[in-house]
Write a structure and sequence with these properties.
The complex is a heterotrimer of chains A (154), B (325) and C (502). Chain A is mostly helical and 154 residues long. Chain A contains four helices and no strands. In chain A, helix 3 crosses helix 4. The radius of gyration of chain A is 24 Å and the shape is flat. Chain B has eleven helices and eleven strands. The longest helix of chain B has 22 residues. Helices cover 44% and strands 19% of the residues of chain B. Chain B is globular and about 65 Å long. A six-stranded mixed beta sheet of chain B has the order 2-1-3-10-4-11. The chains are: A mainly alpha (154), B alpha/beta (325), C mainly alpha (502). Chains in contact: A-C, B-C.
């Protein structure tokens, strides 16, 4: 019996999109589909939600039925690096409200250069200070564009 | 001797304590933030920047004023921002009708305008009911007659269903039994284009939008919406004069402060804005933008807003909008 | 005053030394504003508004037009070099422009963007001068059914932008449609998909999605790829830094396409540079002899959208100057400024304020030339930016993304959304979902839904109206063609293959 190819990105994303479609249609159900004047707020979401479910299922079925391709060496390290970077980015944004852009961005840059890009600590420090300073000079000072300010007032 | 001075001292102390609030002057020492709920270039933003320009030219404030655009969700971002600045005497905002409407219709808009500190009402925006110059309607009555005879065939372009355009429509429809469709367009340009192109029959416009088109003979004003006739349109009757007595639901703008703003600060801003009203620059701005001056202080504004909120609530319910508060 | 006289008078006004100076300042500021994400021409113009009150109106309007114009030129710079759209109408430029940069042809891409902007911008101004009133009258015949048909045509182009997997492209499109419906429905004030978050009541700002998916997503993908996927070094030598003659020849149709499409769509109130650039890009791909190469870095893929977003500027001024109708946010500010100066744009503006009207038009010719002269020599300079080592460049891109988003909206909430979209962009790249359809769905979805509902309200539920009106019928037919032809050729190829094997 042909093994169905289920453990793969397309199938997972397809499942997720099908679930999203379901959510959309469920939400749209609560709104008016058609008003006396014309289509209501539920009209469009219902349709693209249904289409989403249909296409997602087609994707899952289509992918699952294909024979499993040769396992190319997965770039686990690369993916890990990218995800860690993203987590650091998210942390930078999350702390911006408290630390202010300058501080959280400097910390983020330092982390990125030292650990993700694997440079020397000196390079990390220089880059982080330099980039932050550059942003500070160009944006708030020269152009008057405010950067997020934290509890410490900067 | 000592007892007398003690009593005198106590008396003086008591008397001055009674008068202290009147003496407690507020003077801003930090830059003032003027919050606007629209983006750069929107009507409120332009008005805010004009205010700042005039204030600076006439030196009405000892500190700088900075315009801060807090856009998002109509007024919700701006009003939430104001609500977060409890007691702060250095932040004020320009409010419009949207600040009253949003909390009524949106669950997520949690800050009522009266929960903040209304300072003053500055202007009302009169409006004009406009049709194409080549249409058969010469007065509002003509339009309403056709709308009554053939319900649903005539169309009006306007903003969202919570906007003044629709509110006037709802009131007129209720009063006269007429019925015509309302089609929402997000931008003023599209609304005017729809009217000019013959795709809709009626539009309720700001006088500044209408002026040029009317002068060029492309559009005709069939009624004015306001208490008095505007100078530029002396020969067009108001709705009231034409016999349609609908409750006055003005489009109005004013200044509001954060919740629990110190009374001294409120009084101070009232004074500054009063002086603003007297300046030639402001009068010129009002004339150019065809806005009407309003002079209401904090207490009056509060009363006005409470009544206004109640009025809008009823009207919105009838219009079919979901009212959540 | 007829056109020739008017133009002559206009040049007389525009060539006054002070006005030339204002034009230059405007163009320079505009270029800077366009390059830096987070600053838009709208914000800049309104910041400078108070300054201009003390100026003579002609000079003020010339400067503001210069800013508006220059921003369109500058917007392509970060799009090409860093995959960060500088302006919402520069997003389509990212598609091929950035890919050209990755292949070491950043200079050529920047150069083509500048040339396309110049050519299309000039054509736009010429059209504005010559045919503004009739075009404006034509534009008035466009109403919701025609807008709907236009959007459908735009969405049909998604079929062309999907790349290898049509299903994934369509799914990305649908997600884009969903994202754009988050917010408050204008017709019923119903809040949709806001997850209880008040900041979402106004919908998601386009730049947040674009910068997140494109810039942040791309950086994350690069980091996954490791040092090997570093941007290729910029070739030395001026000759390699500018477009070749072959490049320019390849773009001849693109220049025309961008000019005409950009101008026509710019004229329509409510449709702007973003839509124009995507439709122009899609059109270019549809008529190209090598459509499969789009998205990998072809010069026409840069020329078409860049031209379109510049011609759009000329187009947007048509309804403003001839009818007094603002076409979008930038022209709305111009309108407010003109009103404050006591000038009323409208059908009578040409007669009442010929100085301002013709001065503005003439200054745009001058400004266009100034911008070409400003931008071309800067190309090698900007291309050097790519020499920065990746460990400096990448944090820089992250920083600019945050600043760009915060600068547009002023809310930290949007930077949180940025992080989310960055992750989405990364996942999409990894799973081979094309991002162009997502952006296209986001740009067009809202407008399309509105146009359909408006149309049905106007016709009282009668769908047939959409095909009864000539303009919309033609566009819908084109859309159908766009959708059907590739499928025909697909079936044809499959049939040929089957025959060959059978």
């Amino acid at each position: 019996m042909q093994k169905y190819n289920l453990r793969n990105g397309d199938v997972v994303s397809g499942a997720f999109l099908a679930a999203l479609g379901l959510y959309i249609v469920a939400q749209a159900y609560a709104w008016n589909y058609y008003n006396p004047d014309g289509p209501g707020p539920g009209f469009f979401p219902t349709w693209y939600g249904l289409l989403m479910i249909g296409l997602a299922l087609a994707l899952i079925v289509g992918t699952a039925r294909k024979p499993k391709p040769q396992e190319s060496p997965k770039n686990r390290d690369g993916t890990k690096r990218a995800l860690i970077t993203w987590l650091a980015f998210a942390a930078c944004i999350a702390t911006m409200g408290v630390l202010g852009f300058r501080l959280s961005f400097a910390l983020f840059t330092f982390f990125l250069v030292a650990f993700v890009f694997q440079r020397t600590l000196v390079a990390a420090a220089l880059t982080s200070v330099g980039a932050t300073a550059a942003f500070y000079i160009v944006f708030p000072v020269l152009l008057g564009v405010q950067l997020p300010i934290g509890w410490f007032g900067f | 001797m000592k007892r007398r001075s003690l009593i005198t001292g106590a008396a003086i102390f008591a008397i001055s304590a009674a008068f202290a609030p009147a003496f407690a002057q507020f003077t801003p020492t930090q830059p003032i933030e003027l919050v606007v709920h629209g983006g750069p270039g929107s009507g409120n933003d332009v008005m805010a920047r004009q205010m700042v320009t005039i204030i600076e030219q006439e030196k009405l404030l000892p500190v700088r004023v900075q315009v801060a655009n807090k856009t998002g969700g109509g007024s919700t971002t701006a009003s939430a921002y104001m609500a977060s600045k409890k007691g702060d005497p250095n932040t004020i905002a320009i409010f419009t009708v949207v600040w009253v409407v949003d909390p009524l219709t949106q669950e997520a808009a949690q800050n009522r305008l009266n929960d903040l500190t209304p300072i003053t009402r500055l202007v009302t925006e009169p409006a004009l009911a406009v049709v194409r110059a080549d249409s058969p309607y010469k007065t509002m009555a003509d339009f309403l007659k056709v709308a009554k005879d053939k319900p649903g065939t005539l169309k009006q372009s306007g903003g969202s269903i919570t906007s003044r355009d629709n509110i006037v429509r709802q009131l007129l429809m209720k009063q006269t039994g007429a019925n015509w469709a309302f089609i929402s367009f997000p931008g003023g340009g599209e609304r005017i284009a729809a009217l000019l192109g013959g795709h809709v029959d009626l539009m309720i416009m700001d006088p500044s939008e209408a002026g040029e088109q009317v002068k060029a003979g492309k559009l005709r004003v069939i009624a004015q919406i306001g208490d008095n006739r505007l100078d530029a349109f002396k020969d067009v009757a108001t709705l009231t004069e034409q016999g349609f007595k609908i409750p006055d639901v003005p489009q109005t703008r004013g200044v509001v402060g954060p919740p629990e703003m110190p009374p001294a600060a409120v009084a101070y801003y009232e004074g500054v804005l009063d002086k603003l009203r007297q300046t030639a620059g402001w009068k010129k701005f009002l004339a150019e933008s065809q806005l009407e001056n309003v002079n209401e202080k904090s207490a009056q504004t509060r009363t006005f807003l409470t009544a206004y909120e109640g009025q809008l609530r009823d009207i919105l319910k009838e219009a079919g909008a979901k009212v959540v508060r | 005053m007829d056109i020739a006289d008017g133009l002559l008078h206009g040049f007389y006004v525009a060539l006054q030394p002070t006005n030339v100076l204002w034009c230059f300042i405007g163009c320079l500021l505009g270029t800077v504003v366009g390059i830096l994400p987070g600053l838009g021409p709208a914000a800049t113009i309104s910041l400078l508004l108070p300054l201009t009150f003390s100026m003579d109106p002609a000079g003020g309007v010339i400067m503001m037009a210069g800013i508006y114009y220059g921003a369109k030129y500058g917007g392509s710079t970060t799009s090409i070099l860093l995959n960060i759209p500088g302006e919402s109408s520069s997003v389509a430029t990212c598609l091929d422009g950035y890919q050209m940069a990755r292949k070491g042809r950043a200079g050529a891409a920047l150069g083509i963007a500048a040339v396309a902007s110049f050519v299309a911008g000039s054509v736009g101004i010429v059209l504005l001068t010559l045919v503004a009133p009739p075009v404006a009258a034509f534009a008035l015949r466009f109403s919701s059914p025609e807008y709907f048909a236009l959007m459908v045509l735009g969405l049909a182009l998604v079929v062309l932008l999907s790349g290898p997997s049509l299903i994934k492209g369509l799914l990305a499109l649908l997600v884009g449609l969903w994202l754009t419906s988050i917010g408050t429905d204008i017709f019923t004030a119903q809040a949709r998909f806001i997850f209880g978050q008040a900041p979402l009541l106004g919908g998601i700002e386009f730049m947040v999605v674009a910068i997140g998916v494109f810039a942040v997503g791309e950086v994350l993908a690069n980091i996954e790829g490791g040092e090997e996927s570093q941007l290729l070094p910029v070739p030395r030598g001026l000759r390699n830094l500018l477009p070749t003659w072959a490049d320019l020849m390849a773009c001849r149709f693109a220049f025309l396409n961008g000019s005409v499409v950009g101008f026509l769509i710019g004229v329509l109130p409510g449709a702007g540079g973003t839509i124009a650039s995507f439709i122009s890009y899609g059109l270019e791909k549809a008529v190209s002899r090598h459509p499969e190469k789009f998205g990998t870095g072809v010069p026409e893929g840069v020329a078409a959208p860049e031209g379109a977003n510049n011609a759009d500027t000329g187009g947007a001024l048509v309804p403003l100057l001839t009818l007094g109708i603002p076409g979008g946010s930038s022209t709305a500010i111009l309108l407010s400024a003109l009103i404050i100066w006591g000038i009323r744009p409208g059908p009578l503006m040409m007669q009442e304020s010929p100085d301002v009207f013709w001065g503005l038009v003439a200054s745009m010719y001058i400004g266009n030339v100034m911008l070409l002269v400003l931008n071309l020599p800067l190309v090698p300079l900007f291309a050097q930016l790519l020499r920065l080592p990746t460990f400096v460049l990448h944090p820089f891109i992250f920083g600019i993304s945050i600043i760009g988003v915060y600068g547009v909206t002023g809310r930290v909430f949007d930077t949180v959304l940025l992080a989310g979209f960055g992750l989405l962009g990364y996942i999409m790249t990894k799973l081979k979902y094309p991002s162009a359809p997502l952006i296209l769905g986001f740009v067009l979805g809202d407008a399309m839904e509105r146009a359909l509902r408006q149309s049905l309200m106007m016709s009282q539920g009668d769908l047939a109206m959409l095909v009864q009106r000539p303009i919309s019928a033609v566009m819908l037919a084109l859309a159908a063609l766009v959708l059907v032809l590739p499928m025909l050729s697909y079936f044809n190829r499959a049939r040929v293959r089957a025959l060959a094997e059978g």
